[in-house]
Amino acid sequence: MAALQKLAHRQAFLSRPDMSTKAAGLAAIFAKAAAPFQAPGMIGEGILEGVECDLIYALLRHSLWTATPLFASVLIDHLATSYQLPRPVAESLARTLLPCVRQYIPEQSLPGEASDQAFLRYICIATATTCDESTLRLDLGLGCHLIARIKQALQQIFAEDEVDDGQDPRFLPELDALIAAVVYQLSQQLRCAPALLQQERLRYILATVSEPWMTFIRTHGIHWLFDLLLRVASHKTMSTRQIATQLRMAFPDEKGVLLDTSVTALCHELARHHLINLERGLNTWRALPLAEELTAEAFATQETASFAIDLAELSGLNASFQASVIRSLALSTAEVEDLILNLRPLTPLGLRAALGQLAELGPQATLHQTIKTLLAKEPSVWLRRVVSDMASLLGIAHDAVPVARSDSWPNDSIHLKPVSSDLD
Predict the structure, then answer these.
(1) What own/partner pairs with CB < 8 Å and gap ≥ 24 does 358-365 have?
(2) Which residues contact 386 (CB under 8 A, 6 or more apart)?
(3) What is the pLDDT of residues 364-388, one digit of tens each?
(4) Exposure pattern of 22-49 as b/e (b: 16+ CB <10 Å)?
(5) Where in the chain are the domains?
(6) Which tens digits make up the pLDDT trace of 322-376?
(7) Which fold has domain 208-293?
């Protein structure tokens, strides 16, 4: 299942209109580079097909960083370990394609500092802003070793009660010391800008945005665009005119840039980067899951104070917002239990957040009884999947979760039947 999911993710990315031609060009170069290794008794054709897909995906997914020595090293290690390739073979294939991908990168999109430290900052931000590790590994396509080392550095720096005075990041191996330095720098910057990680990730996503917006971002930063996406996601939709009005209010001296045609072009750029989408037949834009995920923590921070455990308000939020608000609320065990059993609709992300809260609050008997009641009332396969995926955290055995048929798998949410309680 994981292998099929990875293949589907890779193919979806490589078949995008802005990627398909590039992928085809790199595939032709790979075929020539791999030909010497296809002799009988060397490397199987099936293995090379997997290597080709992973290599081309990683090169195009991280094209801005292909000039950094560390990226090449991490990529070669990933190919060698994942496919059990001799390292010289993995290195030959990767280094043949690395220079070729740079022709697809617009000069103005290249990072100002294409150093190992800048690349690690990019990976650290992706690690810190992605919901779960399996999604992170799937999206980055660089294996799990670098992610594990980043998480280890995070623990060594922030878990002070577990680190004795003799442990100093300066005495870690070279890569770990570099990771530690990046993480420490980010932690210092977060004190002044709580949304820094999400804004930096947005800046990376929009690294190939067209002019005049590339220059506009370099001049004014990325915060205004983050605020715009937060507003679109909060309002569910916004018209082009409303977006233009907000930008002109934010930048009264830039009216020459913020023409209606330019703002429309910006909206299409955001759509090209899978952040918003034009509503069919309407001149309005809706936030896509990526934008909702990026802005969820900021939404929860500004809205949590106004929530008085109102199930109606929580149920109207998108999946990322719902989960982030649930994690932000200071709830009692009884309140979380009531939320799990009575919130309708409850999204998969919202359920994960609520079950995580209940697992932390305890007692375990309450958690298990809540899950038992929920599963008895609702036979949804996705609900069982969420519980099964969280089995280790929840302290239950995988085989204790009833198996349901895999048909009717909703992507978004489900209307749970209310459990009778004093609130009914």
Answers:
(1) 358/333, 359/393, 359/394, 359/395, 361/331, 361/332, 361/333, 361/336, 362/333, 363/333, 364/395
(2) 348, 351, 352, 355
(3) 888 888 888 888 877 677 777 787 7
(4) bbeebeebbeebbeebeeeeebeeeebe
(5) 2-108, 116-192, 208-293, 307-400
(6) 999 888 888 888 888 888 888 878 888 888 898 888 888 878 888 888 888 888 8
(7) Arc Repressor Mutant, subunit A (1.10.10)
